Amino acid sequence: QQIQFADDMQEFTKFPTKTGRRSLSRSISQSSTDSYSSAASYTDSSDDEVSPREKQQTNSKGSSNFCVKNIKQAEFGRREIEIAEQDMSALISLRKRAQGEKPLAGAKIVGCTHITAQTAVLIETLCALGAQCRWSACNIYSTQNEVAAALAEAGVAVFAWKGESEDDFWWCIDRCVNMDGWQANMILDDGGDLTHWVYKKYPSVFKKIRGIVEESVTGVHRLYQLSKAGKLCVPAMNVNDSVTKQKFDNLYCCRESILDGLKRTTDVMFGGKQVVVCGYGEVGKGCCAALKALGAIVYVTEIDPICALQACMDGFRVVKLSEVIRQVDVVITCTGNKNVVTREHLDRMKNSCIVCNMGHSNTEIDVTSLRTPELTWERVRSQVDHVIWPDGKRVVLLAEGRLLNLSCSTVPTFVLSITATTQALALIELYNAPEGRYKQDVYLLPKKMDEYVASLHLPSFDAHLTELSDDQAKYLGLNKNGPFKPNYY
């Protein structure tokens, strides 16, 4: 059965531009590569190895159109991808249903996301639907090297490896965009760095892009700024604020992965520990729920009175960070903002306080302020640093302030299937939209598409939906087949 995208789904609803968004002048230096890479502060075994940029590697088909850590890891990476496919049944279902009609035939997608087994399933789904893909990583620590190798072996032009330097990061993005005889016409971004790079460095390419799909708070902020300034010359899709992203990936993914990341890096026991979570959006809600369930005493900081009231009603004390910074054992940032944890806060922390970030960018913790002569950095584990003050006090910094769960652990496959399916459908809709349907602005997913993504995942739980009778549907003023909620829900 073919998918009838035009018939089944209403047009994307234009999302009103909000005032007070962050400044457009947010420079490249304030992006996902803020602060230093590990190579700036330590010497470990990886520093002695040859950079992937210096290696001559080819896959089994003789292609060298990629740059990964070690192409010989491809077989291991393929097994990782196959494991992920088992829990991403909806995406595989979409692949099977739509690969006959090839809705992305002719699409040249340049992507910048975390390169994990789960995103590899998405990338290979896009290829199965007819797209050509070139890919880089949106975080210097989140790439699974064996998965990148498997993608390269399968013919995807992937440029990424775990532990890139800042220069490597931008070089990889540039290699994806700048290729003779190949010009991207679609962008799939996570964090906005790729969009920012194309906009700044390749304006002629940017003007010919048919659509942008963005899945992070940080990247969405940047899109709205471009739109507000009248510089967004292509339609863009705000996937982050779709229900199937925000209410599932942001909440349930973080509820499980926050514990995984902290346990793997520090072996901390949470019972009785005092933890402060900065931000009570969906990410913060997930983190707080998990920590509370293990017996931690959880405080919340918030700027939004509505989110603050939700935190109070959920049983958390809402405080200012300065009020509890001396007593807490763990500090977790979940705001998407900058300088939430400053050097002043870090100076006042107790000995052995754990500091980490669950937001996309590493702007939330002022790590740069810790790169001073009086402080000593000691790497004790992969992605775990002790920053030592002159009096002997230590602060345990995880992933150098970068995204904890994808830098230090893994994330639940099933919930990523929901986001990946949403991204795939958004790309298909934007690419196939008739001229004039979408203007040069930022759009939200229609509720009908959100509901379709959710319905694809229900068979995994053997869930059976109740159907409205004709009389009930008339009483509620709804179509029996949905959408069941208004677009603002």
UniProtKB/TrEMBL annotation:
Composition bias type Low complexity, residue spans: 25-44
Matching InterPro entries: Adenosylhomocyst_ase-like_sf (IPR042172), Adenosylhomocysteinase-like (IPR000043), Ado_hCys_hydrolase_NAD-bd (IPR015878), NAD(P)-bd_dom_sf (IPR036291), S-Ado-L-homoCys_hydrolase_CS (IPR020082)
E.C. number(s) listed in UniProt: 3.13.2.1
SUPFAM superfamilies: Formate/glycerate dehydrogenase catalytic domain-like, NAD(P)-binding Rossmann-fold domains
Pathway linked to the protein: Amino-acid biosynthesis; L-homocysteine biosynthesis; L-homocysteine from S-adenosyl-L-homocysteine: step 1/1
UniProt keyword annotations, A-Z: Hydrolase, NAD, One-carbon metabolism
Residue ranges of every copy of the S-adenosyl-L-homocysteine hydrolase NAD binding domain listed in the record: 250-411
Sequence positions that bind substrate: T116, D190, E215, K245, D249
Transmembrane portions of the chain: none
Catalytic activities: S-adenosyl-L-homocysteine + H2O = L-homocysteine + adenosine
Residues noted as binding NAD(+) in the record, renumbered to the chain: G281, E282, V283, G284, K285, G286, E302, N405
Cofactor(s) named in the record: NAD(+)
Broad EC category: hydrolase
Protein name, as recorded: Adenosylhomocysteinase
Annotated source species: Galbula dea
